Amino acid sequence: MSWLKLILPADRDSASLLADALAASGAISVTIEAAEETPVLQAALEEVPLWSRNRVIGLFPEHVDVAGVMREIRASTALPVAEPEIDLLPDANWAFAWMAHYKPFEVVPGLWVCPTWMSPPRPEAVTILLDPGLAFGTGEHPTTALCLEWLLQQDLAGRTVLDYGCGSGILAIAALKRGAAAAIGVDIDPQALVVARENAVRNKVDDRFRALLPDELPEDFRADAVVANILANALVALAPRLATATKPEGRLALSGILKEQAEDVRAAYAGEFELERRDRSSWVLLAGRRRLRS
């Protein structure tokens, strides 16, 4: 299998936003490099080096819908993004680089993500075995980290969890490793569902995990906790569905939201939830409890 590199020009102010948007749109890796041999004009922001002229590079599966990715990026950033330069990259060129550079890391205190070819560095901690692959969600993106941090703060023992937009399944797997009785992962991408199921097997939680397309989720399904790490426009459109999928007094966490989009998402859920906000980098998580109706 080959891969596509989508290369976007960016100035110093837009490089980080474009990098985050590429990751949220499904890139399995994102890098920022200087567009020309010029010195760095500003110290690193959010650990990303920024030059006056940059190339933001996202790596995608060969058959990705490039036009669809670009629509998502333009909608989420509100930037006049130029058409990308596209390079074809043979599989062998990146696979070994991933194995050389992808190391175990602590996403949030007490929770590690570890590739399957390495031993967990802290056996006493919660560890998710996860390899870089086709589905979004390795724990490195700020939105995933925000969701994992939120999950670790919940009492999930014996609870049912819905991970809407599950990607790799990392959030559902984390919930199950924290004691949830059952978790359902929902995604519009059939390949993501395959990956999520495989990751559940690797982490020995597959007996409590199901991966479904949106139309396969029963209308009457209700979860104790719902987490959705997708784009803001989708969260607004899904507000009625995600609200009804949350039990009365159940918990909801929403991410994939840029700072300037937070109030629009909050407004879409205001009838059912009082949502608190957490920020990380350019991204926001909104979380709260569903109101109990008399």
Automatic annotation (TrEMBL):
Parts forming coiled coils: none
InterPro entries referenced in this protein's UniProt entry, alphabetically: Ribosomal_L11_MeTrfase_PrmA (IPR050078), Ribosomal_PrmA_MeTrfase (IPR004498), SAM-dependent_MTases_sf (IPR029063)
Location of this chain's protein in the cell: Cytoplasm
EC number, UniProt record: 2.1.1.-
Pfam family of the protein (one): PrmA
GO MF entry, a single one: protein-lysine N-methyltransferase activity
Binding site for S-adenosyl-L-methionine: 144, 165, 187, 229
Primary location recorded for the protein, binned into one broad class: cytoplasm
Signal peptide (UniProt feature, chain positions): none
Reactions the enzyme catalyzes: L-lysyl-[protein] + 3 S-adenosyl-L-methionine = N(6),N(6),N(6)-trimethyl-L-lysyl-[protein] + 3 S-adenosyl-L-homocysteine + 3 H(+)
Keyword list, A-Z: Cytoplasm, Methyltransferase, Ribonucleoprotein, Ribosomal protein, S-adenosyl-L-methionine, Transferase
Keyword hit for Transferase: yes
HAMAP family given in the database record: Methyltr_PrmA (MF_00735)
Role of this protein: Methylates ribosomal protein L11.
Protein name: Ribosomal protein L11 methyltransferase
Gene: prmA
